[in-house]
Design goal:
The protein has 431 residues and is an alpha/beta fold. The chain has two domains: 244 residues, Glycogen Phosphorylase B (Rossmann fold), CATH 3.40.50.2000; 167 residues, Rossmann fold (3-Layer(aba) Sandwich), CATH 3.40.50. It starts with a strand and ends with a helix.
Length: 431
């Protein structure tokens, strides 16, 4: 089959969805299919080689923004359009990703969801022209429901079935100011109903989105996230002294603050005085103040010398980081749709300790690769860490169970099979 994936790029920092889609496209190509990954807004920033290194960027971030702010720009000369869509300019623009907030972001989100009725209809023209010019795919996949606005014209003008992967749209939309928040939810619901299929990475998130979007129960299928397993595996020897790890963006919502507090509590308890803390993950400039607050907390507790922070690490560095851990915790405070960092840790036989919320129970109960604790309880998380750090045999058993589950249920090969199965159903409908 020939599949086309549309994935928003970040331009400057690693994004889990981008990396997942890139690995998926590469796996499909390795399996003998033809998969193309098109970045939207900004170029993709990836840990490994791009599946489609020569693919153009559509809906260039600067053009989209100017078309939203200035109606006259929607008829700007094509030479200016092409200039502003140059990769060098878009890469530079990516340095400022995350700096647009409030009404600007909200209005742009709603406009994109409105598709042909929004300010970026000219961008849809360019995307459809590209699809018709090159070999027509058997299916098109949108990496987020926030792109659902482009589907109506694509389906009607190319005849290609369009599918969508949901992941994390609720927290983004709920952060928009009114009236754009309610309007965006309503528009996304209308647009998603028109698609040939919608999937989510967990049953938890599928049910959340069915409820929020007013969809019939069971309308959102579940395809668990997978990962490329090359290079991952257990450490040859367990770390000594023991190391507690965190792997996610350096923000409050992912639970970095809770991890720091639990580390302070672990040392207050005094049974594992040699324990270290190592935090890695994405960080953009606006995250720096929060990180400095966490370092100050550790400094005040006399523990900063036992902690290490490694932002924006490469894939190889991430594997080495995971293999250096005794356990991992990412106590995200919002309704995490999946948590790719969990299966990345399990792929290195590292057990996880997570709050009993969102998709975490689903992943840990199916894998047997970790421990669940009450959400919001720093002391209980610290106690769970302590118990595992003092019990190497149990830690090893949980790690091996998680490792087996990742190879069984979360390989990229398995994920590719499931995407093909759903895509084939759309192709049969078309015929």
């Amino acid at each position: 089959m020939k599949l086309l994936f549309l994935t928003p790029g970040t331009g400057s920092y690693y994004c889990g969805v981008c990396m997942r889609d890139n690995a998926l496209a590469k796996q499909l190509c390795a399996d003998g299919h033809d998969a193309v990954l098109l970045p939207l807004y900004l170029p993709l920033t990836l840990e490994e080689a791009a599946a489609s290194p020569d693919a153009p960027v559509f809906f260039g971030g600067l053009n989209v923004y100017l078309q939203q702010r200035f109606p006259w720009f929607r008829k700007a000369p094509l030479w200016l359009d092409r200039l502003l869509n140059h990769r060098v300019i878009l890469k530079w623009l990516g340095r400022f990703a995350g700096m647009t907030h409030g009404a600007d972001t909200a209005a742009l989100t709603l406009s994109m969801l409105k598709g042909e009725e929004g300010a970026q209809n000219r961008e849809i023209d360019k995307l459809i022209d590209w699809i018709l010019k090159f070999e027509r795919p058997d299916a098109i996949w949108l990496s987020t429901g926030l792109l659902a606005g482009v589907a109506r014209r694509i389906r009607s003008e190319t005849g290609v079935p369009v599918f969508c992967s949901l992941q994390g749209e609720d927290s983004f939309l709920d952060g928009l100011p009114e009236p754009w928040k309610t309007s965006s939810w309503e528009e996304m619901a209308r647009r998603l109903e028109e698609l040939d299929g919608v999937v989510a990475p967990s049953r938890f998130f599928a049910e959340v989105m069915e409820g929020r979007l007013g969809l019939k129960a069971g309308n959102v299928e579940v395809i668990p996230n997978g990962m490329a397993l090359q290079g991952y595996g257990p450490a040859l020897v367990p770390p000594s002294p023991p190391v507690v790890g965190y792997l996610a963006r350096f923000i409050r919502g992912k639970g970095l603050g809770a991890v720091v507090e639990a580390f302070v509590e672990l040392h207050r308890r005094g049974r594992v005085p040699e324990a270290r803390l190592h935090c890695a993950g994405t960080m953009i400039p606006e995250d720096q103040p929060f990180l400095e607050q966490q370092k100050a907390r550790l400094r005040d507790a006399g523990l900063l010398h036992l902690a290490e922070f490694s932002p924006n690490i490469s894939r190889e560095e991430k594997v080495r980081f995971l293999q250096s851990l005794s356990l991992l915790s990412v106590p995200a405070t919002y309704g995490e749709a999946f948590g790719l960092y969990l299966i990345e840790a399990m792929a290195c036989a590292v057990p996880v300790v997570q709050p009993r919320v969102a998709a975490f129970p689903e992943i840990i109960e199916s894998s047997g690769g970790g421990v669940l604790v009450d959400p919001g309880s720093v002391s209980e998380m610290a106690a769970a860490w302590e118990a595992l750090l003092l019990d190497p045999a149990r830690r090893q058993a949980l790690g091996l169970a998680g490792l087996e589950a990742v190879h069984r249920d979360h390989s990229m090969a398995r994920m590719a099979e499931q995407f093909l199965e759903v895509s084939a159903r759309g192709k049969r409908k078309e015929m």
